[in-house]
Amino acid sequence: MEPPLPSRLAAAALLVLLAAPARALETETIGGAVLGSAVLPAGQVLRVASAQALVRLSTGTTPAQLDAALAALGATRGVDLGGGWHLIHLTPGQSVASALPMLRALSGVAAADPSHVYSANRTPNDPSVNSQYALAQVSAFAGWEYEIGGSSRVTIGVIDTGIDGTHPDLTAKLTTTTSRAFDPSNGVMTTNNPPTPACNHATRVAGVAAASTDNGMQVAGMSWNAQLLSLKVFTDASCPSVGCGDAGCLADDPGIISAISYATTVVNTAAYGRIVLNLSLGGTGACPGAVQASITDAINKGVVIVAAAGNDGGAVNTPGNCAGVIPVGATDSNNSITSFSSRGAELASNGLVAPGVSLLTTDQGGGTASATGTSFAAPMVSGLAALILSAKPTFTVAQVSAAIRGGADSIGVAGYGVAGTGVLGSISGAGRMDAYRSMRLAVKGTLAGFDGEVKPTAFPNPFKPSQTGTVAFALPPSLQGGQLSIKIYTLDGTFVRAVTGLSWDGKNTEGRPVASGAYVFAVTTSAGTSRGRLSVLR
Description:
This protein has helices at about 5-10, 15-20, 65-70, 95-105, 135, 140-145, 200-210, 255-265, 290-300, 345-350, 375-390, 395-405, 435-445, 465-470; strands at about 25-30, 45-55, 75-80, 85-90, 110-115, 155-160, 180-185, 190, 225-230, 275-280, 305-310, 325-330, 350-355, 360, 370, 415-420, 425, 455-460, 470-475, 485-490, 495-500, 505, 515-525, 530-535. It is α/β, with parallel strands linked by helices.
């Protein structure tokens, strides 16, 4: 039987406020005139919790003295929030706007503020988003709080088998008259509009990177608003099967070079903005000189290039092993490196890993499919690069790479690499992609002062299972190690569930949904134990 959570945890600063029975939060709006130090611009209002306020005691004032002063107003003191602040319960029916001036006038009160109301934002309404485990695993929902890809124009060029231009979750994202296909008869890129697929591979890659998101349809892409550019380098004749599995389904150096070179002619134009190129393809051997030359030219012109590391479990494939490229290996739903994920020095010095097993994505013919391979880990990183460039359009290629790799999470396996420590791994590179940390690093310039750097965090929090399906846990560097175990408890110490991965579906050990309320999660690794709080809202 699972032992109860230690009493010291239950007695710690777990905010008794959260221990109250779940109830609907009633709200009201107030204007800037009564907000005190946090005055809003003229005409704006703030949504606040009804029937409560927050009060900070003056130096030397005791809680008992505050109680006496509040009694004259018919208000009562609630939980001690720390730092001299207390929750105040107002007289039933009294508006917050009318109560704040009276609270500020009380002897012994240094400040009185409303209780702000928060909601979980940036949760797309795509019906299959709850089935996209990888989004929760890489903290995409938290990353989207910083950027969804609409602040400035970014285009993801998919150098692949050609995107299905009729797919309902992709067609709105495709640049209107500019998709191209390589013509091996003359060695040039020709117009291919709407883009046509030689097989389903590029359509699946495109969905992972940038399927139309929050449109009430199918799946969510990593970048909600990045455009897509289909750069077809595999011919219809070479890929006769819709499954792309034929031995003759091949591309060559001239096609890849032509596609990369085309991107350099349109980067930073009004129609395209910044460009990220995704190459979910690979070959053996060292990076060809001609390919390296085209890649170097593109990088010098500000094009970010992401490539699949390869699926043979051996050395990083080309072009993933070319200088300046970000190679991407694959993890599974348990945050383990897959046996097929290619590895090596290029991954250690330039790359990282991302989920690449059973990713739900768009498929040729208008539907969805489950896709596995480093081919589908790479577009997750390409989508993140597009988010970074949308938020920071003047970033250099090196700055984009630094934000992606600097924000990566260690997946807790000795020797696989620990992000931020300078100890990198040939198997996992800088670690597993983390959209939240990378976006914060890009936007804020530092991870210093970030709660997730010192204690485990959960996102979204509050967790609404009906909206996001799973909640993702993130570990601070000090806690990253092997033998991961996460145990979830109610605030009274009752054991709820143990999970071995970094996500939870909101169910107990019997597989039944847990009730709304506050929970504690205890994280244990070979590096130690720490705890966090999580609120579940049904």
